[in-house]
């Protein structure tokens, strides 16, 4: 695995995307150090100030303030933390569940495949937005609930795509050869199949990060996300909608933050797909 | 061929029955996790505990969960999805009233997404091997990274707030009458001959439809492009070239017809997701469809309504998938003749 | 006047930074109504010629010198539009893979109609009638029904007939047939060739027939050009080239090919393989010299001269006169006598698959293998022959345990492997091993060769140390005739023949009692095939094992195996000593198989 992965680092696409991702990840990891203000500190004397490049800006607040006088830059940075935590945890969870089921289903086939296949069918007939909303209604708001909801919605993405890849790999004669040489099923899956599906897994993980960030933003936007005590980009957008005439930047900046981060992960996924030579029928948001 | 298609649709709808049963059961269980008491909510705040208890018994909330589900299912099969807590009306009726607006929006968005996706895909393919290839490719990844609710906000901001070019609230101007015959405003306005209403409805539809169309076209674009790439490596393309066909003839008569198949598979999945994507766009544009109703219901913990709407979404998505499958059969002889 | 005149045609490719010659100085004249054969193993550059005529060379390839005169016009310098106007009309192509050369979403009728309307045929009805006539002339039954069918509903042979009909529909002056039978079942090869010959006679068309099979070419062609590493090494009348090859390469190729009718003899083994494009760049002199038994110092220094050995028979070799002296010194592989003891007894083995089970269909079963009964003695090589889909591979999979038999017994040294207690593969894993058909699919591309050949040492609870495995892999590489430095390589860096050796080495890691070999030489060039067949014979002599050798090539079977089982539609219809079965076939299908194999040479 080290071979192709290191090779993928020679792709400019992967490098640029990795740079963008690391930039967001850095802000998220060291939000407390990077952010100039406490993100929930209210300055009711200077509300809705524009960012530095607009007339009437307060140099104290680089990107201006929102309707409660909170520093937009600091909120963006702490929003990145929320987004990255949710995306990473949720993608990991979805990947673990989805890929275990996919390997069981694709390798063993038969009854296991049938059951898992029907489970995926049922899940897929729920539109993802609706399913996550309902889960949030049932689970209640909170960071951990958002993560759980995304895991419960998106494991099917991994399962569906990986299952067919596992089936393709399993058809290779070297898998049959391993069994003939006395490999147990576990050995065969871990030593012969997983190394072959890992590039796809990594690519899917990157794309799932992008999806999870969007879903978190959507849930926070409709007020069913991480909850009022956490800073989230979706929430910032929802707040800024009320004052779009006075302070359009409050709306545009979190939008830009989301697009930047999502684009970074999509670009990374696409770059990895090319560099690792993964065949992937793209499945959208 | 028609018989095959009808048989397939029948088979798919039959297969959808157990799926819908499981889906509705799951919905029922998830919503019962809620820490709210539907009985208490449907009574005025002044109700006594005894009154609430009586109401609970009346609503069957004191029985075990499977029994409650069976009761709900029995009623639902008779078209009774319960009474909405916040509106006090039949949930089924509320859904039926808001569904046409959502269907109109989704249909317009699907057409847009298909047009933009196909055009863009052909353009991307046409640019292969040129300097613009990677620029266009990066552009399509950027487009891919803007989900429908952000498109909604961006378009609303640019064309509504800044340019004042298009309306962005509701489905028709508030000073105009809203004819209600079928529920589809575009159709109804034409039926009563009010072209001003029709035009207003069209103008109101543009921004939300574009928000969805733009969000869902990049995937179609990229899949069409990559399937065309794959197909150009096939022997029959080479053979067509050896028969002396021009590149345009090869694209139009041979490549495109094959490239549509994988694109359609994806578009089917995409359109299912697009239909539920209307939810956020409706919220942003205050469009009186099912999405707005859903968010309302969610905020007010209106369980019967949530359940009815969610089930409707699932049914529509299943119908879309079935139709796309049928289209697939029409276009792919391998599926038709096996 | 010649239909096509090639004059010093040279094709080059850009490889990395350097330019490599792919075809060097090819010249020939093709007269109307004649068939010329371009013969060469893979990598000889033979398919480039057809692509050069249509100017659809792969990216980076270009014609750098010479001309291709078609009726006086040079196809090389011709404007693309004029050339395109010739394609499909005056020049037609018969492709290598008929199943994929037809558009899968269009009916045969629609594709034929498109072609005929491009040819200027007016009227849908007239086109339909012409299509029906052409299809009927190609020996396709019920052409009316065929027009409404899609390519996937047809067999490969039928697809090729459709494509041949379409190629001759325009009464072309030139038809290029690029390996038209390679992708088809062996039993159809002759029929397709006969069809091409008949159509060619009827339309008085000139044909370029590209193939890797010298015997096939000699059957069909008037003249033959043998290509080696992009150079024409021998050309002349087909009979003369086949019966009295003058170039050492052609002679060696002939000796490497097992014969169907003559006395069984050892196969001549050419060392190594054809030089790659990259190697050719740094070579001087004759490109066959490194493998040539007659090569002298002179051959490695200078380009070989063109020598005329008979009327119209030209060879690029200074040692042509010595060619007849090349002979195989070794004796034919020995055949063990009737085996003393059976290693394997198969009794009434059957496999049935359930198909079409569903809500609307009754469950039905299809028998892939019916009541197969046979045995294999110690050290005995037994062949299993039959066309594709006859159930050969299913038998192999059941023997090694990849498929569970529906009924019957598999007795290995007296133990029934179908007993639940013995199903655990690792108990017999060491003694029954399989060599897979496609070495590309059979070798994990992520493992190094040393790890692949000693993979059995990490199976189950075995945890061999790395240095033990290194040592064993060196021994195994030596046994299959590969250098020690292969141990650290990845399968992707190996040629097809080398991969197949690795595939064999893996099966030998723990010495087997019985090997199942599934079509392990099909798709390989004759010289590589000879290397592998000799390797198997040598390994048996050294290590001692029995083998079930699955193949569709009767001449290979005749060379290697003492007994043969013939399978047809899931049943073993005939079995016995190879000579007896092939010499006096009883079952009609065996007769068809024998007849399909070239009777010559």
Walk me through what this model shows:
The complex is a heterotrimer of chains A (285), B (338) and C (601). Chain A has 285 residues and is mostly helical. Chain A has helices at 2-8, 12-29, 31-34, 72-108, 110-124, 128-139, 143-170, 173-180, 185-221, 233-241, 248-275. The termini of chain B are close together. Chain B contains 14 helices and no strands. With 338 residues, chain B is mainly alpha-helical. With 601 residues, chain C is α/β, with parallel strands linked by helices. Chain C has 2 domains: 4-90 and 170-325, 3-Layer(aba) Sandwich (Rossmann fold); 342-597, Rossmann fold. In chain C, 33% of the residues lie in helices and 25% in strands. In chain C, helix 4 crosses helix 6 (156-168), helix 6 packs parallel to helix 7 (186-203) and helix 7 packs across helix 22 (588-596). The longest helix of chain C is centred in the N-terminal third of the chain and has 18 residues, at 186-203. Chains B and C meet through helix 10 and helix 11 of B and helix 2 and helix 3 of C.
Keywords:
heterotrimer, B: mainly alpha, MetI-like fold, C: 601 residues, Rossmann fold, six-stranded mixed beta sheet, 22 helices, 22 strands, 33% helix, globular
Determine and state the CATH class of chain A.
Mainly Alpha
Question: What name does CATH use for the topology of chain A?
Answer: MetI-like fold
Estimated share of beta-strand residues of chain C? 15-25%
Average pLDDT across residues of chain C?
87
SS summary, helix count of chain A: 11
Approximate helicity band of chain C: 25-40%
What's the architecture of the largest domain in chain C in CATH terms?
Answer: 3-Layer(aba) Sandwich
Radius of gyration of chain C: 26 Å
Tell me the CATH superfamily of chain A. Answer: MetI-like
C-alpha termini separation of chain A: 28 Å
Overall pLDDT of chain A: 87
Structural class of chain C: alpha/beta
Summarize the helix and strand pattern of chain A as letters.
Answer: HHHHHHHHHHH
* Count of alpha and pi helical runs of chain C: 22
CATH topology of the largest domain in chain C: Rossmann fold
Considering DSSP H and I runs of 4 or more, what fraction of the residues of chain A is helical?
Answer: over 70%
Cα-atom Rg of chain A, whole angstroms? 22 Å
Number of E-state strands of chain C: 22
- By oligomeric state, this entry counts as heterotrimer
Tell me about the largest β-sheet of chain C: 8 strands, mixed
